[in-house]
Design goal:
The protein is an alpha+beta fold and about 180 residues long. It has 3 helices and 9 strands. The structure holds zinc ion.
Length: about 180
């Protein structure tokens, strides 16, 4: 049993499905002759491209018997779910990239003055902050001497962390 589909777009709409020998044409929404509504064959309720057009609000199903409505709802729901899953999957792929930005930090290596860091600007990938201490070219060989410790300061509800040199000898201070 065919069902009625309304074109919601202002312009003429055409839909064809050559495998089922379907070629339909609607006049723009609000057509005075009522040609913005067409009776369409049942097969269209299974047609993904047609369902997408319904989903996008290009077409609205005006009249359909229970069986067709159920089929449409089922198809539309499953298509929407697949589309959401696809979106989530792509978000999961994009996410690690999002933390790939280079962030400028100051080298935590020692300087000539005790208690003062080298401070040379170093670029660190956002995703490795907290995994690796920021160290300049000159100090990067000290990477294994640094440990992440929490300070007494609270930033954004979390204890602030900083890199502290665990192995620290006065002699080495002068060498570096
Ligand atoms: Zn440095």
């Amino acid at each position: 049993m065919p069902f009625a589909v309304r074109n919601l777009e202002a312009g003429r709409a055409v839909f064809s499905d050559p495998t089922h020998n379907i070629a339909l044409e609607w006049s723009g929404a609000g057509d005075i002759d009522g040609n913005d509504i067409q009776q369409v064959p049942d097969e269209l309720a299974q047609n993904v491209n047609f369902l997408r057009a319904v989903q996008k609000g290009i077409f609205a199903v005006e009249e359909a018997d229970e069986a067709i409505r159920a089929a449409l709802d089922k198809q539309t729901t499953s298509w929407r779910r697949k589309s959401d899953e696809a979106k989530e999957a792509s978000a999961a792929v994009i996410d690690p990239e999002a933390r790939n930005d280079l962030v400028q930090m100051e080298c935590v290596g020692p300087s000539q003055r005790a208690g003062v860091n080298c401070g040379t600007a170093v670029l660190v990938r956002e995703k490795v902050i907290g995994e690796k201490p920021p160290l300049c070219e000159r100090h990067k060989k000290l990477v294994n001497e640094y440990v992440m410790t929490q300070t007494d300061k609270i930033v954004d509800g979390k204890a602030e962390t900083k890199w502290v040199r665990a192995v620290q000898g006065a002699r080495e201070f002068q060498q570096v």
